[in-house]
C-alpha cells in the first residue's frame, strides 16, 4: 500500500526515480507511473492546509464569542435552531467540498473541523437552554464521541487530532476529581480510570489509523503520556513504562507499517528518557510510597506484553526486545530500591544505559537519525542536570553560572561534532 510510506521515504524515492529516468534505467511511462503511485506532498500544499485549519479555528472562536456575548438577546425559540443550523451547515459544506463533488478536500476538512468546534459549543449552549447541569466531564465525553464518529466516516486528519485532544482532556478530568471545574481537586487514580483511558486510547488510535494521520497518533500518544504522568498515580515510573510500551509498538511498525513508526519512536523515547531523568531527582524515596500499584502493574504488563509479541517468530529474542524488557523491570526495581544511594545509582545507570542503547540501535540496526538525535539531546540534558545537582549549592553563584555556561558551550560543540559524525555514518 503506497499510502503507508512516510513523506521522507517518498521524497527520497522521487529523487531516485528521476535519477533512474535520466540514466535510462527505466522507461518514461514506468517513471511517471511510479511518481504517480508514490506522490510527494509539496510544502506549499501543507502550508495551505495549515492556513485553512487555522482559519476554521479562528472562525469558530469568533462565532463562539459573538454568540456568547449576544446569547441573552436571542429569543429562546430561535436558540436551538441556530445551533443545529450552524453545526449541520458547517458539516454539509465540508462534505460537499471534500466528497461531493470533492474538488476542495482541504477546505472541506477545515469546514468539518469548524463544525466539530460548533458542535462542542452547542453541547453547553443546549444544556443552558434546557437548564441542565453543565458537567464538564460529560460534555467533553459527548464532544469527543461526536468528533470521533465524524472523523471515522470522513477519515479527516484534523478531526482525528481534535478527537485525540478532546479524549485526553476528558481522561484528565476523569482522573483528577474533586469538583466540577476542569481538573479540579486531587488525583484519585483507580484501575477503572486506567481502563477508561486505555479504551479511549484504543478507539482514537483506530480513528487515527483509519485517517492515515501520523500527527493524530503523535498527539494521542503525547496526551496519553500527560495522563499517565499526572492522573494515573504512577508518576515518572509510569511514564517510563508507558514509553517502553510505545517503543515496543515502534519495533512492530518498523517492520510492518512504517507510516506511524515516527510517532511511536519519538513519543516513546522522549517519555522513557524524561521519566528516567526526573526519577534521578528523587533523593528521599517519597515517590515510591505514593504509587498506585494496580495501575503500575497494568503498565508494566502492557510494556512486557508488547515486547513479548515482538519476540514471536524468532528463535532467539532480538537484543532490542530483551533490552526493552530489562529496561522496564530495572526501572521498577530501581524505584523500590532499599536506600536513596542505591536508588539513585540504579536510576542513573538505567538512564545512561538507555541513552547508549538508543544511539547504538539508531546507528547500527535501524539507521535512524531521529533515534540518535533524541538520545543525544537527553545526554546533554542529563549532563546539565548533574551539574546543577552537584555544584549549585557548593559554588558562588557568579562562578556557578560562568562555569555552567562554559560547560554548555563545550558540551554542545563536542556533542554536535559527535552527532554529525554519527549521522555521516548513517549517510544522512
Could you characterize the architecture of this molecule?
- There is one protein chain.
- With 428 residues, the protein is mainly alpha-helical.
- The protein has 4 domains: 1-40; 43-127; 135-232, no CATH class; 242-428, no CATH class.
- The protein is 78% helix and 0% strand.
- It contains 16 helices and no strands.
- The protein has helices spanning 7-23, 28-37, 43-70, 76-98, 105-129, 136-154, 157-175, 191-211, 214-231, 235-256, 261-279, 293-310, 319-335, 340-365, 369-391, 397-425.
- Helix 11 runs parallel beside helix 15 (369-391).
- The chain is globular, with a radius of gyration of 25 Å.
- The model is unreliable at 178-186 (pLDDT under 50).
Task: Note the main attributes of this structure.
globular, 428 residues
Amino acid at each position: 500500500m503506497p499510502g503507508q510510506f512516510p513523506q521522507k521515504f517518498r521524497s527520497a524515492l522521487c529523487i531516485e526515480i528521476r535519477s533512474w529516468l535520466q540514466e535510462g534505467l527505466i522507461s518514461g511511462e514506468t517513471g511517471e507511473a511510479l511518481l504517480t503511485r508514490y506522490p510527494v506532498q509539496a510544502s506549499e500544499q501543507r502550508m495551505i492546509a495549515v492556513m485553512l485549519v487555522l482559519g476554521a479555528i479562528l472562525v469558530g472562536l469568533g462565532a463562539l464569542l459573538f454568540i456568547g456575548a449576544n446569547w441573552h438577546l436571542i429569543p429562546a425559540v430561535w436558540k436551538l435552531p441556530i445551533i443545529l443550523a450552524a453545526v449541520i451547515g458547517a458539516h454539509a459544506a465540508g462534505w460537499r467540498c471534500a466528497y461531493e463533488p470533492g474538488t476542495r478536500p482541504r477546505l472541506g476538512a477545515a469546514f468539518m473541523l469548524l463544525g466539530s468546534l460548533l458542535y462542542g459549543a452547542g453541547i453547553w449552549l443546549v444544556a443552558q437552554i434546557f437548564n441542565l447541569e453543565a458537567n464538564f466531564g460529560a460534555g467533553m465525553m459527548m464532544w469527543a464521541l461526536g468528533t470521533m464518529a465524524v472523523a471515522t466516516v470522513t477519515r479527516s486528519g484534523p478531526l482525528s487530532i481534535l478527537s485525540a485532544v478532546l479524549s485526553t482532556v476528558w481522561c484528565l478530568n476523569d482522573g483528577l476529581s474533586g469538583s466540577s471545574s476542569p481538573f479540579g481537586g486531587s488525583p484519585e487514580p483507580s484501575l477503572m480510570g486506567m481502563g477508561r483511558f486505555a479504551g479511549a486510547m484504543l478507539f482514537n488510535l483506530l480513528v487515527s489509523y483509519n485517517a492515515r494521520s501520523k500527527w493524530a497518533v503523535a498527539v494521542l500518544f503525547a496526551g496519553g503520556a500527560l495522563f499517565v504522568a499526572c492522573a494515573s498515580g504512577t508518576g515518572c515510573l509510569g511514564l517510563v513504562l508507558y514509553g517502553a510500551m510505545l517503543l515496543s509498538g515502534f519495533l512492530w511498525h518498523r517492520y510492518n507499517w512504517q507510516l506511524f513508526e515516527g510517532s511511536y519512536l519519538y513519543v516513546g523515547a522522549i517519555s522513557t528518557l524524561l521519566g528516567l531523568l526526573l526519577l534521578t531527582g528523587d533523593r528521599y524515596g517519597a515517590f515510591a510510597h505514593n504509587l498506585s500499584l494496580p495501575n503500575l502493574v497494568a503498565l508494566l504488563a502492557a510494556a512486557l506484553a508488547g515486547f513479548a509479541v515482538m519476540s514471536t517468530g524468532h528463535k532467539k529474542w532480538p537484543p532490542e526486545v530483551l533490552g526493552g524488557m530489562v529496561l522496564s523491570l530495572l526501572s521498577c526495581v530501581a524505584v523500590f530500591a532499599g536506600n536513596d544511594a542505591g536508588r539513585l545509582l540504579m536510576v542513573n545507570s538505567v538512564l545512561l544505559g538507555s541513552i547508549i542503547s538508543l544511539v547504538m540501535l539508531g546507528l547500527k540496526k535501524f539507521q535512524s537519525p531521529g533515534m540518535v538525535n533524541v538520545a543525544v539531546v537527553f545526554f546533554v540534558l542529563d549532563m546539565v542536570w548533574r551539574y546543577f545537582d552537584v555544584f549549585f549549592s557548593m559554588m558562588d553563584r557568579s562562578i556557578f553560572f560562568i562555569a555552567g555556561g562554559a560547560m554548555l558551550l563545550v558540551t554542545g560543540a563536542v556533542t554536535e561534532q559527535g552527532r554529525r559524525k554519527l549521522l555521516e555514518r548513517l549517510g544522512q
